[in-house]
């Protein structure tokens, strides 16, 4: 098995989901990626996704001044990614309700947030971004919108996905 | 099988991006200077540091290194040259600087990535790359250094062994 740490990242882009507050000041979820995110990744296969919370980065670089999600929300959030057809699998929400902390790959010993044991990687596959979301099990009071950032490692349209497939990472399957 | 711990770092060079204060606040975009030494030399890995890792830059005027308190505001945009069918452009956009910090210090407030940032061997366009602070914050000193440790190949070195396709040996069978 190829260790995560030998992963050669071809391209990376930070995207975000903004969680808005309703008229009572409570979070509105599920919250979704925008069409601009979907447009950027058209025909581009996704290899890995990472996330962060406020101990790691303070403000969104995409929406300056919008704070990054706090630990209190981060610990409650889960993410669902809808994938397109490919690799013999029909599209659908096959990455469902993944704890956000599992997608965090940085550590900070001074803070309480959890870190995933491995980088969250997927077989090179297109995602249906506007159908992908983050969810809180119950609304939480927030004073302003917050950003949930996702650092996406991806392939360009013309790049060969083969070296990144799991079947290629395992010796016997490729023989 | 090639393990990360066995990554043979062919050459390494520490460079820096100087971040300047404007009216006591961070500047939104801080471009790198041209890196003559790295012209035509493919980059395969990048790491950054904060003041908890090294207090002062060893370069030029020995600027103080960016403090841990500023690191969460900082993002890296990397522009690379085109090669083959891939066009030149900013293909690493808004990378949190903490994502490139691979050093651990349990007393530091700055986060660290458990993985080293490795990229496909590619020539960077340094003048089009920058350290960004999209949301301004107070910057105590007029200048700080953001040190970047660059792992690179010489012009004549074969980049293939550093590509993902090569790291997985079965891909070649």
Succession of helices and strands of chain A: EEHEHEEEEEEH
- According to DSSP, the number of beta strands of chain B is 10
Structural class of chain B: mainly beta
Distance between the termini of chain A: 15 Å
Strand arrangement across the biggest beta sheet of chain A: 1-9-3-7
Helix content of chain B: under 10%
Q: How would you explain this protein's 3D organization?
A:
The complex is a heterodimer of chains A (175) and B (173). With 175 residues, chain A is mostly beta strands. Chain A has one domain (21-143, 154-174). Chain A is built from 3 helices and 9 strands; from the N terminus they run ββαβαββββββα. In chain A, β4 and β5 form a beta hairpin. Chain A is globular. With 173 residues, chain B is mostly beta strands. Chain B has one domain. Chain B has one helix spanning 164-167; strands at residues 11-22, 25-26, 29-31, 43-48, 75-80, 89-96, 112-113, 117-122, 130-132, 143-152. In chain B, the strands form 2 sheets. In chain B, strands 2-1-10-4-8 form a 5-stranded antiparallel β-sheet, with no helix packed on it. In chain B, strands 3-9-5-6 form a 4-stranded antiparallel β-sheet, with no helix packed on it. In chain B, a hairpin with an 8-residue loop joins β5 (75-80) and β6. The longest helix of chain B is centred in the C-terminal third of the chain and has 4 residues, at 164-167. The interface between A and B is large, with 49 and 49 residues.
Task: State the gist of this model.
The complex is a heterodimer of chains A (175) and B (173). With 175 residues, chain A is mainly beta.
Structure characteristics:
heterodimer; A: 175 residues; mainly beta; four-stranded antiparallel sheet; 9 strands; globular; B: 173 residues; five-stranded antiparallel sheet; 10 strands
Secondary structure topology:
The complex is a heterodimer of chains A (175) and B (173).
Chain A: E1 12-19, E2 31-32, H1 35-40, E3 46-51, H2 71-74, E4 78-83, E5 92-99, E6 106-107, E7 120-125, E8 133-135, E9 146-154, H3 166-169
Antiparallel strand pairs in A: 1-9, 2-8, 3-7, 3-9, 4-5, 4-8
Chain B: E1 11-22, E2 25-26, E3 29-31, E4 43-48, E5 75-80, E6 89-96, E7 112-113, E8 117-122, E9 130-132, E10 143-152, H1 164-167
């Amino acid at each position: 098995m190829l260790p995560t740490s030998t992963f050669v990242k071809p391209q990376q882009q930070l995207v975000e989901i903004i969680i808005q507050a309703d008229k009572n000041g409570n979070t509105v979820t599920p919250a979704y990626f925008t069409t601009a995110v979907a447009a950027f990744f058209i025909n581009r296969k996704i290899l890995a996704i990472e996330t962060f919370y406020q101990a790691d980065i303070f403000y969104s670089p995409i929406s300056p001044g919008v704070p990054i999600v706090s630990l209190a929300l981060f610990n409650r959030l889960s993410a669902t990614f809808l994938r397109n057809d490919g690799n013999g699998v029909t599209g659908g929400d096959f990455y469902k309700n993944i704890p956000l902390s599992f997608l965090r790959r940085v550590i900070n010993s001074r803070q309480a947030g959890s870190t995933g044991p491995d980088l969250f990687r997927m077989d090179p596959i297109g995602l249906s971004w506007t159908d992908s979301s983050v969810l809180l099990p119950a609304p939480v009071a927030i004073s302003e919108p917050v950003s949930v950032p996702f650092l996406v490692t991806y392939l360009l349209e013309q790049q060969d996905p083969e070296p990144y497939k799991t079947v290629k990472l395992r010796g016997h399957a490729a023989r | 099988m090639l393990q990360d711990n066995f990554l043979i770092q062919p050459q390494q060079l520490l460079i820096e991006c100087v971040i300047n204060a404007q009216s006591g606040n961070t500047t939104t975009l801080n471009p790198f200077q041209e890196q003559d030494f790295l012209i035509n030399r493919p980059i395969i890995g990048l790491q950054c540091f904060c003041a908890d890792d090294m207090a002062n830059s060893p370069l030029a005027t020995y600027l103080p290194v960016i403090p841990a308190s500023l690191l969460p505001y900082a993002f890296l945009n990397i522009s690379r040259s085109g090669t083959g069918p891939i066009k030149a452009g900013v293909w690493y956009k808004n990378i949190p600087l903490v994502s490139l910090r691979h050093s651990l210090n349990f007393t530091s407030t700055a986060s660290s990535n458990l993985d080293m940032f490795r990229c496909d061997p590619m020539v960077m366009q340094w003048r089009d790359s920058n350290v960004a602070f999209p949301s301004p914050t107070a910057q105590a000193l007029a200048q700080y250094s953001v040190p970047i440790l660059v792992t690179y190949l010489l012009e004549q070195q074969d980049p293939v062994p550093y590509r993902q396709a090569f790291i997985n040996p079965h891909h070649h069978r």
